[in-house]
Amino acid sequence: MNAPTTTPHLLPRVNQRPVPAALLQALQAQFGERCSTAQVVREQHGRDESSFDVPPPGAVVFARSTAEVAQVLQLAAQHNTPVIPFGVGTSLEGHLLAVEGGISLDVSQMNQVLSINAEDLTVTVQPGVTRKQLNEAVKSTGLFFPIDPGADATIGGMSATRASGTNAVRYGTMRENVLALEVVTASGAVIRTGTQAKKSSAGYDLTRLLVGSEGTLGVITEVTVKLYPLPEAVMAATCSFATLADAVNTTIQIIQLGVPIARCELLDANTVRVVNQHSKLSLREGAMLLMEFHGSPAGVQEQVETVQAIAREHGGETFEWAATPEERTRLWTARHNAYFAGVQSRPGCKAITTDACVPISRLAEALLDSVTEAQAAGIPYFLVGHVGDGNFHMGYLIDPAIPAERETAERLNHQLVARALRLGGTCTGEHGVGLHKMDFLESETGTGAVDMMRAIKRALDPQNILNPGKIFAL
Amino acid sequence: MNAPTTTPHLLPRVNQRPVPAALLQALQAQFGERCSTAQVVREQHGRDESSFDVPPPGAVVFARSTAEVAQVLQLAAQHNTPVIPFGVGTSLEGHLLAVEGGISLDVSQMNQVLSINAEDLTVTVQPGVTRKQLNEAVKSTGLFFPIDPGADATIGGMSATRASGTNAVRYGTMRENVLALEVVTASGAVIRTGTQAKKSSAGYDLTRLLVGSEGTLGVITEVTVKLYPLPEAVMAATCSFATLADAVNTTIQIIQLGVPIARCELLDANTVRVVNQHSKLSLREGAMLLMEFHGSPAGVQEQVETVQAIAREHGGETFEWAATPEERTRLWTARHNAYFAGVQSRPGCKAITTDACVPISRLAEALLDSVTEAQAAGIPYFLVGHVGDGNFHMGYLIDPAIPAERETAERLNHQLVARALRLGGTCTGEHGVGLHKMDFLESETGTGAVDMMRAIKRALDPQNILNPGKIFAL
Fold first, then answer.
1. Domain span at residue B67?
2. pTM
């Protein structure tokens, strides 16, 4: 790990090329109204949840099949023009922004659940299926798909960013849960990676190379993911603490003892307050752990007793139970909306979101020092954390019209990431690199590893047309 | 999936180049006695547990540090000469064989446990540390490392082949358990992948690209793996069945119900017999499941009750318990030695080992039809399976002096793999491709995906000096 010595990365490098007229003509001939250059459509596809302001792509194509995705890639390759895969636009680090111009390839209409293989605990979907849609589709099987970023993201987008969420502490991230992919390459070839078998040693692990590649190595057109039996017993509770440190230290001990907790989420007092406002809840305002336990009735009972004892040692209040499925849903919906609650707490603001993840033993230092710095800077923020994984997010709420606020937020993020790297962690636990963390990636893994990524990118996309300008500069 | 239409891959293509004298001289100047051209040393490094007979490498270098590995790679690159990483020689598919000549780079002396991070449940080791050595080193922490191929393989070799073993059904394979690597590239550069954090979305997943790359993309010089708390309660049992089908169908139901069983292993009656002989046990001779349950005392009790009920439905006998830790160790040591027990049951034989892995719902068809074919062919074999993962191994015991036996075994393996691929499975669950499964890989994943692997290989090893001739032909 090298210390990040570059200045904070404030604004993306933009170098847009126009979409060649001949390419537009070919796409319009092929896709008709599903190839749009309307300003409003382009603008919808030219922003995500990041705070960056970049002119939109030159055109948007709505694909309905793998064959159509392949056609777009073949045409784009002929005309040497960038293609940016697009799901529902919930990414946070500028992944979707057309910094080099080109075509936004919207796969949200590829939203069929292709096959539910309940007896193998897998499901195969098109990339535009969202996580909620997927869970709705498999509901009757008694199985569920646990990966749950805050937004109702698409499975394609979640694969591309190696997303996780509140259940990852028990069920893993997209890294552990994608079994197989269908992918269209930069030249428009259709390939398949992985099989339906649970494990394999058959050659390079292309599945996991493509998961997290942020649309820079191929366009995902089909995903097979693992499902899990709905637990026999589920219990969810909140627990308030006098200080953030108490909540964090409780978490550390839960994990070190190997308690198979299903969810272990942190909110600070201010975030509890904005979540209460946004979701019309009355959670006790204070540092809080939101927890869920899965298992057999006896197994859940054991986990709860262990965790209650740990929490008591750290001064935790008595658990408040979300007793019914409806109450649980309400609680977790509120947690998932914490990001939006935070953003709405300051009208007109943009959030600059951090995403550090550190080894669990270093979580207290990583998180508490970051809070101290944010408080000293006087910038409004919210704080949520998948703390069971050592992962937390601060959202600095800036007024985009005030450059000094952006600078302060970026400086705080820079300090936070530098600390996480010093502690053996990563600059991004689940959001990806996009535009925002390109410099941090190099600090984290070193030039040698990024050079290896560049070599792979050049080999698989020699024209650099797949979501160019993301993850690293070529 | 394409049907494997090529003829069985009977013998590897061998095209050995001599090691240039100038390279030998440079290595000898650098490494002294640790660079050997002695016939006996070369022959030790020129064979693994596969049945292939290939002339040995031109020289063997024993490295003691990452810097020395980098020196070997730099010299080899200068002299355009292959380098084959070597741990303890337990691979099964010809991974170590010098089909294009070159240097065997023995890292078994790089066998230090570098840091035990008990509070983060990780450990960092040099590549020559074996799995037993690792578990001995972490014993006092109350943690353990679950991945256990039959042999006492090195962590470097296990990473390189994406190995698993009997615990993978609960704890995953090397794919899920390697957190970070240090690797020397084809040009002799030292890079690091991954961090000590549990999850990350920071760029391409080089860790998982290198895990399973069989020494063809880099030489692993350091590995960080996950550890797990020793379970509070452990119970191990065997259960005999009237037929193989009963044992397999019991397994399928255990997995489909989501029982978190820690080990679920199958032996057929003949294999129980040879294991009894080899390990001086008196297991009941019949199709048998060997199982282990991990958890809290109550959790283990629940699992046992569920599994006993399932087994009873399929006519399983009463469980025989391995009550003490010593009895458990004896049972699992016998299971780990099943391969050697099988080989020793036919003096002078070589084993041609299969490694298919299929979705759990197709396990009965995949396994039982393969047994029927082997019995019809009249060739001696043993049968073991990590059946909880849908993975099983048949070892055809051939007399290497009788070509017809090898042909029969290869034909049976070919049929078995073709069936596994038809059922959505893989040609190799955990042994890797090596030389033996190159044609199968192409059938399994298609030319497009293998072409993507080739492009990556060419980009990262343009001279093709890292373990050339393995996984795919370039």
1. 21-106
2. 0.96
